[in-house]
Design a protein that fits this description.
2 domains, 44% helix, 3-stranded antiparallel β-sheet, 11 helices, Conserved hypothetical protein from pyrococcus furiosus pfu- 392566-001, ParB domain
Length: 253
């Protein structure tokens, strides 16, 4: 059988606050609660134990006292039997839980005549694609570069230029107009294969000037905010994906 809690009428000042109430309230929400009581009246009975200590409704009790309504008579609910300490704790916690979720579409379409924010309902913020991208880039793990060897790798082990120089040779042989030759020469550099594992090791052994230039060339990424500003994050993602798929050597494409 379900226990139904009886209701009786008491003055607000006859109630006792729960000193172990686990709920808190901000100043703005407390003011909002008082405004709601003032506008709509008091119609949600608090729950009390047999000794008059509040189990649920502490904030409403505080609001009424703060509004000078200690002598106001309100309905309160009390248990039909003496509660154990465990039962008291369960009621205190469960009274503050909210089952279910808001249907924000229904609120927006069917309750548009009222100020929902005034009642404490905040609609979720819909992120734009740019905001989602910013969140993604902000969460990229910052790499840590520590030397793995006593000396940097030789320059010959950091890149492969076979295809690059083969293309340059063909471009020169065609006797093209200078602007076209320059364009194709620059484009050919995309086929230089970099060993980013060795580049990272090389970076660890360099002075600050060389490291700074390597960072500006996006050979390594240290400061992601700076990298975002300079447009390197997309390049870095491609580098990482290529590194994951192909190991230490890849084409900068």
């Amino acid at each position: 059988m379900i226990n139904v809690w009886p209701v009786k009428v008491l003055k607000v000042k006859e109630l006792f606050p729960n000193e172990k109430n686990p709920r808190t309230i901000s100043d703005s929400n407390f003011q909002r609660l008082k405004n709601k009581i003032q506008k709509q009246g008091f119609h949600t009975p608090p729950k009390i134990d047999n000794d008059g200590v509040l189990l649920g409704g502490n904030m409403r009790y505080r609001a009424l006292l703060d509004m000078g309504m200690g002598d106001l008579e309100i309905p309160v609910m009390f248990p039909p039997k003496k509660l154990t300490e465990k039962e008291r704790q369960e009621i205190i916690v469960s009274d503050n839980l909210q089952e279910g979720e808001w249907d924000f579409d229904a609120l927006a379409n069917d309750f548009d005549d009222i100020d929902l924010s005034e009642l404490g309902i905040d609609f979720p913020v819909i992120e734009t694609e740019q905001e989602k991208e910013n969140i993604y880039t902000d969460k990229i793990a910052r790499p840590t570069y520590t030397p793995q060897k006593d000396a940097p790798p030789p320059m010959s082990e950091m890149f492969v230029t076979d295809k690059y120089f083969a293309l340059i040779k063909q471009i020169k042989e065609k006797k093209l107009p200078p602007d076209v030759e320059l364009f194709l020469t620059l484009a050919a550099s995309r086929h230089i294969v970099f060993n980013y594992e060795n580049i990272a090791e090389f970076y660890c052994h360099q002075n600050i000037d060389v490291q700074d230039l390597m960072e500006k060339s996006a050979l390594v990424i240290i400061d992601f905010e700076k990298a975002i500003e300079e447009g390197f994050i997309k390049l870095t993602n491609e580098i990482q994906e290529s590194f994951d798929e192909n190991g230490s050597e890849m084409e900068d494409e």
